Amino acid sequence: MSLVRFLTLVVAAVYSLLLLDTYSSFGPVAYGTMFRNNQLPFEFAALTVILAVFPTLWLPIRVTRPSQVCVWFLYLLAYVPSMLLPMRSLDTPPSQTLPLIIVFCLGFAALSFPYRLALPALRQIKVQPITFYGTCLAASLGLIVIIIAVNGLRVDLSLASAYTRRAEYKAAAGGGSVLSYASSILANSLVPVLFALAFERRKWWMAILGAVSVVILFSMGGQKSVFFTPILIAALYLILKGNRRHFGLWLCAGATAIVAIAMVERQIFDTPFLSLAFVHRLVFTPGILTGQFWDFFSNHPHIYLSDSILGFLLHSPYDQSAGLIIGELYARDPGRNATTNVFAQGYAHFGYLGMVLAGLALGSLLYLFDAATTRRNFLPCALVMGLLGIFWSNVALHTSMLSNGIIVTLLLLYLLPSARKIRPETNFVG
Fold first, then answer.
1. Between the N and C ends of the chain, which has fewer C-beta atoms within 10 Å?
2. CA 40/CA 113 separation, integer angstroms
3. Hey, how many other C-beta atoms are within 10 angstroms of the C-beta on 423?
């Protein structure tokens, strides 16, 4: 084992232990009467931490493909909390929850498997820069016009009223509406691409257009993921620009630092900003929801994609989505769409097999993306892939592609003109 990999494992262990300490101290504030923190026998507590750091033995510390950035974010935000929290947050004997975290680990290993395969040479489509940038400009402005025409124009960047605006937006937009699709494509596709190119290619008109889009989207829907998009891309840009060789170590260290600073903030200033904005929403929630999805669908019928792709063949056993079911039952909040990571969603549809299939499906998609973008610039693709890692820690794979506009994101990156001649790196490097 190399020194860098050993250090990455150690930092991941510190990250896991800090999360457990933060969950114990901040959980009652974040979850109120619904908070659970069961004391585990030593062997189960130790196993959850061991499994949490286990993937650092094989994940590529040096990133050579854009999608590896996505996998690292999934590791920190979906995998680690899903190892640590289900046993602690469910009123279920640890021995019964054990298969969940073991199969989750297998699913994550399946996601990482394609990095052992060489990339094929796929045909590239050459797009002129003026065509690509002009399309991004026209599409962004067009979507902004649609959003303003349907919802009106307002500017409200208050984080305090974000949940109120989000509830109003959900009531006004609904699923499948023009407003819903327009805001999803703008937020999840164009805004990340605009900011990634602004940082990588110094096209500051894209940063201005992206900032205008963020103001309109956040004022309308209160989505914190949109609000923090430019901040996250800037931070990821700084890591990738100078530390691509040791990316895994630096990303783990950055996540650990955020958790530690959040603890210091609560102790010294008695304010929970970082804890609520990052640790609670991005880390704790996916882990707790993994356990809740498993708990519910272990005792109720699986969905088998009958709510979407296979709806023309199968009748769904439920009259609402899995996220709405979990939100109403466990959060006691009718209307809350408690969506979570691709692996837990896989369990909701196909049980334990679905968790492994979810890893294989996402791994295959990322493999094809890497193959299709070998002659594109690494940095903008990697920046957007980092955001997709955050996205897929909260959303099912099959619904994200069309309903959330992710297929548009991948298409934009595939068509992205190269800024210079590139020699692609296709080998797996640990």
1. N
2. 32
3. 7
